[in-house]
């Protein structure tokens, strides 16, 4: 039994917010973390029956108090804009609680829907974007400008770069982006907080006159370095390693002369932390179909660890069916490709690469029988799922949990390992051909050809009930 | 205005029945009896136990939501001021206080089902491009929808959903064992899976093997309060059986209706595609039909589970059923004829007759060659029978007549009448593929629609 309390118990606190009285416990107030204003209020020396006065709006405070009490936003929060809530949470110092309550649930491709489209105010056709911060925020390059949208998809700011058109963007630090363009030479670093250029790297070689005006095709980020693939007007190309701390050129690997499809500039670069290698791929579509390569480099030695070319030497079981796009699943160390003719998806384990490592995935979903070839195909691996854009349609391949019924057929075809489903509806696919898919936080961002802005796809735990009355 | 705000709480002694609670700075008074209504595991009960203390118990929650839940506790109904809140807020708060069952009872109770008052009220959209193949509902109105290889579950308020991926290409039969567990099977997949829908894993897989030990597919699932019935067909389609499992332990109890097909015995080759438990008579109805060159033929069998015997068997040759259902409350079996598309009834008390069916429409349509009844669904719920025809739903109900003429066989003629459901704007539409009932709602799935329609009567509170 408790000691008989004095006329006001010490574990409780009264607040007067804008004239409205609230009573809560110290522990509730402290759940916002030690740096918050509310924590500071709870530290008052001796229990005081007089309420603490805070000159803020009581309605929003009651929403935030509910959030602290129950870790979820009450429906009354809908009366306020996300902006208001975020501002007020920042004032009280509880933005981390708000962030966790407002973030969408884990992204599940089998149950995701298009929730909004981010449209920059001017020149809204996105030339590149990145969701590299991995908290659901996104940076969009459009018409030489970079717009940043925070975790709540609120416009955080726009800077103008010297580029006419930014075609590759990569987040290097939380406020620094590495930018490249196929119309202007060099890799350039821009700082968002200052809105200015903080460094540039160019590929130059005094001993080789063919190397001039080198432009950037792809950028990848690792904890200590930035990798960028450069190419010159006469197709000589190379991957440059840039030291992240100094933003200076460190080394170079994989220089090739670009005379054939097998040594063109990599148009995708991915850093694989588990093995410390860079995965680069290049795909070109010519009169005789698709051709390209996937190559793994060790950036320290500059040597090629593994490579495959398609159309290859004929050892592949899928001769004449070269890949149209390649995706790397960094978490699972898997490589995925879409075949250009059959449209099949194949995977390869990056831990055990061999001459023909591909396993072709098959799914008998009758609603997906009409697979077209691999034209306009985009692959992106995110959260252990493989998202594939085929023309305007968006589909997802999800791994079946401890599936016992994997049927391995001849020629490396495997059934039952992954299930294929459409993420979108037919109406969604009519908005245009998907050119880029990228995941960030619990969101999937989709960019379409000739469509303004970037689509945002999320999963939701609440059903969107449509009233018919 | 909260009671006693600004003034000192009134003095009371611990012997008194009156309990004072401080919720988020507001004082509430109620009686111990009201608090004990919430059940022994709820926070209310703990508050009422701690009343012996001298101080007023403090609960650090929203006072407005508490006042709604206190009203619910006092009257069993939600007050109209509950409309100011989202049902999600109330559910979450009721879970905190441990009174969610009372909230469910007041908002989604099967006794509130009013067949004549149902209207198409909401649409539950499904993500992706697959349309629902099966709907399984629970008594209090949560519903599981299988679409493609996925199962989406909606909670009883239909506001929360979750989707899981199954091993099936498409689910063909599904039964809700509890709000979070379902039994699912497919006609192209071996074995019945008991799936935990919250966490998306297969809890158990039930298999049946015939003498050749080949795989077996699931044709139908049914359940009684104690047992789970599964109709299996072997992969080579040369044998079929109905397995009876214990619903709790899922261990096999018995096997009935095991048929091995030799030669051209067509009738025994038909596996049961619908299993329904007739509670009033403790019989299992199993029906299956087959479309052959001479038209559709089928059988309806009533099984006694304990003895494993067929109590009554009906072979259908003329105007065979396209779907059949038994209404326990009415003691009547209904079917839709596949040729005529008309509804027939058969009083369960006259079982054993040569032709027990009474046609409730144009009898002559039964012998024409058209197939108007293909794909029609018929389901009974409560005292009514719901029959889908194309995009429309017919509601059949019995009219209680004061003067009953006795017919020759001693049984009175019963009068059944039909109505078309819904307002004019709700009629028609794509062909209905599924009908399910739960809580005070009816769920309807249509061909090529990536959504589930919810038909319900207006509810108190929301």
From TrEMBL, chain A:
User: What are the Potassium channel tetramerisation-type BTB domain coordinates in residue numbering?
Assistant: 13-97
Listed pathway(s): Protein modification; protein ubiquitination
Tell me the Pfam families matching this sequence: Beta_prop_At2g24240, BTB_2
Q: Which SUPFAM superfamilies match?
A: POZ domain, WD40 repeat-like
- Which residues belong to any copy of the At2g24240-like C-terminal beta-propeller domain? 126-458
Give a GO biological-process term. protein homooligomerization
Protein name in the entry = WD repeat containing protein
Biological source species: Parasponia andersonii
From TrEMBL, chain B:
Top-rank lineage group of the source organism: Eukaryota
UniProt KW keywords: Ion channel, Ion transport, Transport
* Sequence ranges assigned to domain BTB in this UniProt record: 17-114
Q: Does the keyword Glycoprotein apply?
A: no
Q: Which InterPro entries match?
A: BACURD1-3, Beta_prop_At2g24240, BTB/POZ_dom, SKP1/BTB/POZ_sf, T1-type_BTB, WD40/YVTN_repeat-like_dom_sf, WD40_repeat_dom_sf
Q: Which Pfam families match?
A: Beta_prop_At2g24240, BTB_2
Query: Quick one: a GO biological-process term for this protein?
Result: monoatomic ion transmembrane transport
Keyword Transport present in the record's keywords: the answer is yes
- Pathway in which the depicted protein is active: Protein modification; protein ubiquitination
Give the protein name, as stated in the record: Voltage dependent potassium channel
């Amino acid at each position: 039994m408790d000691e008989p309390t004095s006329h006001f118990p010490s574990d409780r606190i009264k607040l007067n917010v804008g004239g409205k009285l609230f009573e809560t416990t110290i522990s509730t107030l402290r759940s916002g973390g030690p740096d918050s204003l509310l924590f500071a209020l709870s530290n008052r020396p001796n229990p005081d029956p007089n309420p603490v006065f805070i000159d803020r709006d009581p309605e929003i405070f009651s929403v935030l108090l509910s959030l602290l009490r129950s870790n979820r936003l009450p429906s009354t929060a809908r009366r306020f804009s996300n902006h208001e809530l975020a501002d007020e949470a920042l004032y009280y110092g509880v933005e981390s609680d708000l962030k966790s309550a407002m973030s969408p649930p884990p992204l599940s491709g089998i149950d995701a829907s298009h929730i909004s489209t981010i449209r920059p105010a001017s020149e809204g056709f996105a030339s590149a974007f990145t969701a590299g911060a991995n908290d659901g925020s996104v940076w969009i390059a459009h018409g030489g400008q970079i717009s940043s949208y925070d975790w709540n998809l609120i416009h955080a700011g726009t800077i103008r770069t010297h580029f006419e058109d930014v075609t590759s963007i990569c987040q290097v630090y939380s406020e620094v982006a590495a930018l490249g363009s196929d119309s202007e030479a060099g890799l350039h670093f821009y700082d968002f907080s200052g809105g200015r250029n903080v460094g540039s790297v160019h590929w130059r070689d005094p001993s080789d006159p063919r190397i001039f005006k080198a432009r950037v095709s792809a950028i990848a980020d690792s904890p200590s370095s930035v990798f960028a693939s450069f190419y010159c007007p006469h197709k000589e190309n190379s991957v440059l390693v840039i030291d992240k701390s100094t933003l200076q050129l460190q080394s170079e690997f994989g220089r090739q002369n670009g005379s054939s499809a097998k040594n063109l500039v990599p148009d995708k670069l991915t850093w694989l932390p588990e093995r410390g290698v860079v995965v680069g791929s290049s795909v070109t579509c010519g009169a005789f179909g698709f051709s390209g390569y996937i190559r793994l480099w060790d950036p320290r030695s500059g040597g090629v660890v593994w490579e495959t070319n398609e159309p290859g030497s004929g050892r592949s079981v899928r001769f004449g069916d070269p890949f149209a796009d390649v995706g790397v699943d960094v978490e699972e160390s898997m490589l995925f490709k879409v075949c250009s003719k059959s449209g099949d998806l194949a995977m390869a384990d990056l831990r055990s690469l061999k001459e023909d490592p591909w396993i072709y995935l098959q799914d008998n979903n009758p609603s997906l029988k009409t697979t077209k070839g691999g034209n306009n195909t985009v692959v992106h691996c995110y959260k252990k799922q493989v998202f594939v854009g085929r023309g305007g349609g968006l589909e997802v391949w999800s791994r079946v949990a401890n599936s016992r019924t994997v049927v391995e057929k001849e020629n490396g075809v495997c059934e039952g390992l992954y299930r294929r489903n459409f993420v979108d509806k037919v109406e969604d696919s009519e908005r245009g051909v998907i050119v880029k898919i990228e995941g960030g936080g619990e969101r999937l961002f989709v960019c379409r050809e000739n469509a303004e802005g970037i689509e945002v796809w999320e999963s939701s735990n609440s059903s969107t009930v449509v009233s018919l009355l | 205005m909260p009671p006693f705000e600004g003034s000192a709480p009134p003095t009371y002694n611990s012997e008194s029945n009156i309990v004072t609670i401080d919720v988020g700075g507001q004082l509430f008074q109620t009686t111990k009896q009201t608090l004990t209504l919430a059940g022994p595991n709820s926070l209310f009960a703990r508050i009422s136990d701690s009343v012996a203390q001298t101080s007023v118990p403090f609960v650090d929650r929203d006072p407005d939501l508490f006042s709604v839940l206190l009203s619910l506790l006092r009257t069993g109904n939600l007050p109209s001021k509950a409309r100011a809140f989202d049902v999600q807020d109330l559910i979450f708060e009721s879970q905190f206080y441990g009174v969610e069952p009372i909230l469910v009872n007041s908002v989604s109770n099967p006794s509130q089902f009013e067949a004549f008052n149902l209207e198409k009220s909401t649409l539950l959209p499904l993500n992706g491009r697959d349309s629902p193949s099966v709907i399984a509902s629970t008594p209090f109105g949560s519903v599981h929808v299988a679409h493609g290889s996925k199962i989406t579950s909606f909670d009883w308020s239909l506001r929360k959903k979750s989707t899981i991926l199954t091993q099936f290409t498409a689910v063909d039969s599904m039964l809700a064992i509890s709000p979070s567990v379902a039994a699912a099977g497919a006609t192209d997949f071996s074995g019945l899976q008991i799936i935990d829908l919250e966490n998306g894993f297969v809890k158990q897989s039930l298999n049946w093997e015939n003498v050749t030990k080949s795989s077996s597919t699931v044709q139908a699932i049914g359940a009684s309060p104690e047992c789970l019935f599964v109709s299996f067909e072997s992969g080579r389609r040369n044998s079929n059986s109905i397995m009876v499992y214990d619903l709790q332990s899922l261990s096999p109890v018995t096997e009935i209706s095991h048929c091995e097909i030799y030669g051209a015995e067509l009738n025994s080759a038909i596996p049961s595609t619908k299993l329904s438990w007739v509670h009033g008579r403790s019989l299992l109805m199993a029906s299956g039909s087959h479309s052959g060159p001479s038209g559709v033929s089928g059988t309806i069998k009533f099984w006694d589970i304990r003895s494993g015997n067929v109590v009554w068997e009906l072979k259908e040759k003329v105007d065979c059923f396209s779907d059949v259902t038994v209404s326990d409350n009415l003691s009547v079996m209904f079917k839709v004829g596949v040729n005529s598309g008309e509804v027939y009834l058969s009083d369960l008390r006259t079982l054993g007759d040569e032709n027990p069916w009474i046609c409730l429409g144009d009898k002559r349509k039964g012998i024409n060659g058209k197939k108007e009844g293909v794909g029609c669904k018929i389901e009974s719920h409560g005292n009514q029978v719901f029959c889908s025809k194309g995009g429309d739903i017919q509601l059949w109900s019995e009219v209680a007549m004061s003067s009953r003429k006795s017919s020759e066989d001693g049984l009175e003629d019963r009068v059944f009448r039909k109505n078309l459901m819904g307002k004019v704007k709700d009629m028609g539409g794509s062909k209905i593929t599924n009908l399910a009932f739960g809580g005070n709602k009816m769920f309807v799935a249509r061909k090529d629609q990536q959504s589930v329609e919810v038909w319900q009567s207006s509810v108190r509170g929301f």
